[in-house]
Amino acid sequence: MNRPLILDRRQVLAGSGALIVSFSLSKAFAQDQAPAAAPAPKPPGSLATAPYLDSWIRIDADGTITAFTGKVELGQGFKTAFQQIAAEELDVPFESVKVITADTRRTANEGYTSGSHSMQDSGTAILHAAAQVRALLMAEAAARLGLPAENLHTENSAVIAPDGQRLGYGDLVAHEMLHVEAQATSKLKDPATYKVMGQPVPRVDIPAKVTGGAAYVQDMRLPGMMHARVVRPPSYGAQLTECDTAAVEKMPGVVKVVRDGNFLAVVARKEFSAIKAMTALSSAAKWKETPGLPKQDDLRSVLLSLPSQDKTIFQASDPAASGQKTIEASYVRPYQAHGSIGPSCAIAQLTDSTMTVWTHTQGVYPDRAGIAEMLRVPPASVRCIHVEGSGCYGHNGADDAAADAALIARELPGVPVRVQWMREQEHAWEPFGPAMVTKLKASLDGNGAIADWNFEVWSNTHSMRPGGAGSMLAAQHMAKPFAVPAPKPLPLPEGGGDRNAIPIYKFPNAHVVHHFIPAMPVRISAMRALGAYHNVFSIESFVDELALAAGADPVEFRLKHLDDPRGRDVIERAAQEFGWKKGQKPPADRGYGFAFARYKNLAAYCAIASEVEVNRETGRARLVRAVAAVDAGQVVNPDGLINQIEGAIVQSASWTLYEAVTFDDTRITSIDWQTYPILRFNAVPDSVMVHIINRPGQPFLGSGETGQGPAAASIANAIANATGKRLRDLPLTRKKIKDAIDA
Amino acid sequence: MMTLKVNGRDHQVDAEPDTPLLYVLRDELELNAAKFGCGLGQCGACTVMVDGKAVLSCVTPLLLLEGKQVTTLEGLGSIEAPGPIQRAFMEEQAAQCGYCIAGMMMRAQALLQRNPKPSDDDIRAELEPHLCRCGTHMRILRAVHRAAHLMQTADASTGRRSAQ
After folding, report:
1. Chains A & B: contacts with CB separation below 8 Å
2. Does the beta carbon of B41 lie under 8 angstroms from any beta carbon of chain A?
3. Are A496 and A364 in contact (CB under 8 A)?
4. A394 touches chain B (CB under 8 A)
5. 10-residue stretch averages of pLDDT, chain A, 743 residues long
6. Is B27 an 8 Å CB contact of chain A?
7. pTM of the model
8. Which of A735, A703, A732 is nearest to A717 (CA)?
9. Which of A668, A41, A564, A544 is nearest to A293 (CA)?
């Protein structure tokens, strides 16, 4: 029997009468188990960096069970999925587990909740920690009963002996018992026996959200809380030259005006008083602005003319294969906004030299480091507690609002200060998804197969998340400002601008170049899927262009170039469920499109078939029907996964058809929902179907971002199918479509 | 000081008459459901009902509400005893981040009160002023259909009970 080593250790220790497993002892045992030459294998997921079991699972003497995660709930449903994982491997009812999310005083440091990593990192850690905790509890029961652990089983929060005797987990657990390091391997349950995992358990956060419960940081009301509003500069780099605050300070309810260099804010007892004071303060402030923004209507030239660091990231060569027919194309993506429905918000309070910040940041530890640096205090003097906010889809204004709140709260010791951004502040100041350009060139051989493939991408970095204070607006605007940190390309295999730039298809000759652009004329950072959105849009559009040139069916053409069996499965499943038929003619003014990707070439697989209608008179395109197939490994909550993919398709349709940040030479001009229109109900599809290919026992594959790229390309391909015209510059607006039809 | 009727109860409110209803609900009455989204009447997150009609509370000043009945999502049920539309949204799992959902539900409730059997087109047209960024639209539509069904079933069963 493949018993985990941890049991032996526990039995040894239990036999000696000691229930406390010390750090040093567990280290010593770990070393005993591994040959001196080979490094000990690391435990899986985030256990590798936070190895103590009680960082993940706590069981109290009264039987209360808590699971901890350093990740945050953003509306993806993780809290529920983690609760399912813990309940399953602990063998306890779902309802008996409480999940605590990111808090710098309580949870492990798991960095950012980003990159579709939560299931892979935190879900995997909780899975293995729960399994090892259950093994410890069984070992403890075995010692007490004087029976071999093999004769016991667990059920409903208790270890059960063959004679039916029950020892509850709360009775078995002892002080420090779970404060042991995880082993590299765990005895996991057979997926065939799962009772909680794999079930569409209703999300734990939804009841409060649909009944007016306190669900968001925006809903927090602390005793004595005051309301602040920030007056942001009118443009990047604007300098505050004059601001008479006397009149504003006398306004009813106003408590304080805070000015620190170009940082300007007002605090009032009531929220609407703060807003009125903000308006008055904004009128009083005089700014010196400097034009510095690039030409918004020619981003291709702008990006291609900026200096870049060029790197070949993939090369394949087979001189035997040679092309006969060559085509080229270039695709562009504009700057796009996260566009959270709720503007960013945070509450901060300075008490006894600790600054506590309640924030919807995606990374409490990095946020704490940035805020501590800004306040010039040690990180231990700052506590960041995650509280859910409006959906963010990446790095929006959350961290900036947290820094705003901390800087203001420092001026009012003891007072909880709540800051919420106004709509135009969120739209103008959030760090946008970066603009990108791709150039593709490929040749077909005599058999209509791709013989060589050239792909180049020009992009900024895709993460300017706080690592330091300089990433946050408040720290940039202070009298003694912090400089914006130098941008860095995100390393492969995940990549940033080059995420998904390397094709998953097998081409005999291939050359992929990443042109990393350090200069950032527009404030940018991470937006859902990073570079994968545009790279997959480009690759999957171009594959369709090549299929057309080869006279091949787009689905068959993809399968012809793809070896990955799981990739082939999602393509075949999506095609079958859609009713895709080779050579099928769509109804008049409609088109069919197909696209596929494996997110980052290492996370979830997703294939999408779309039907789009195009109004030839107006150019308006609408996604009518989408059918997706997704493989995210072992599925924890199928309805949660379906919800994520449905959302990805509809959100990506909005990005793809409508969205571009606009600006003149000085200011961002898309500052609300009229100047930055997104998808409304009149454009919602008739149907979106998501089919899951479950892989029992396989590792979790992150799925939160896998749909963005394929959805975009399948829509573009369907528009090309409907109109006979290929559009390559995002967004695919009705004007561009109309112009292409009329051309 | 003015009297504001919210969810069937009178409240004495001490706020400037130009204060938008949204801030009175959230800050004076400590009700969470109506959300600040834009303050411009562009997104629908702040929607409540006034005398049975959907109203954008972020652009409706307090002075216009004397003698009117304001209903928020809190007035349609509770987490322990959810009303039909709340049950429908739970059963359809019709939320991701959920920030827009309370506003959507209030306009849907107003629609269902005046048109108990709306078509899919009716629902889409009615929800046009509302934005959802997570892309939960398909589930929101399903939930409104389900709410219509639940309300009719509830009416029918109430009807039977009172007839007995």
Report:
1. 177
2. no
3. no
4. no
5. 35 32 32 53 93 96 95 92 98 97 95 90 96 97 96 96 96 92 96 97 97 96 98 98 97 97 98 98 98 96 98 97 96 98 98 96 96 98 97 97 98 98 98 98 97 98 94 98 96 97 98 98 98 98 98 98 98 98 95 98 98 98 98 97 98 98 98 98 98 97 96 98 98 98 95
6. yes
7. 0.94
8. A732
9. A668
